[in-house]
Write a structure and sequence with these properties.
The chain is of the alpha+beta class. The protein is 44% helix and 28% strand. Strand 2 and strand 3 form a beta hairpin. The termini are far apart.
Length: 88
């Protein structure tokens, strides 16, 4: 019985991990404001939407989705922050 429970747990864990890694950004909107603030949203392949803002000093936040789905867009936001804060 313990072996069956362990195998089932590993199956559920793997399925959860696989669904997270398959969710990707499908569409995005990025708006550059006059006060150097950036706003926008990401639509993911699972149909959900994540909203975000980036302030002129590089601080950012996102909301409107599950914790796993919020993680999908972090790399894009960090690249955008790098682009905005690097001085020429």
């Amino acid at each position: 019985v313990w072996c069956v429970i362990k195998v089932y747990y590993l199956y559920i864990l793997n399925k959860s991990f696989m669904s997270h890694t398959q969710t990707q950004i499908k569409q995005k909107k990025v708006t550059f404001g006059k006060t150097n603030e950036v706003k926008g949203w990401f639509k993911l392949t699972d149909g959900t939407k994540t909203h975000f803002t980036i302030s002129r000093d590089g601080e950012w936040e996102q909301w409107g989705n599950t914790r796993d789905n919020l993680g999908v867009s972090v790399a894009f936001i960090e690249e955008l922050v790098n682009f905005l804060t690097i001085e020429d």
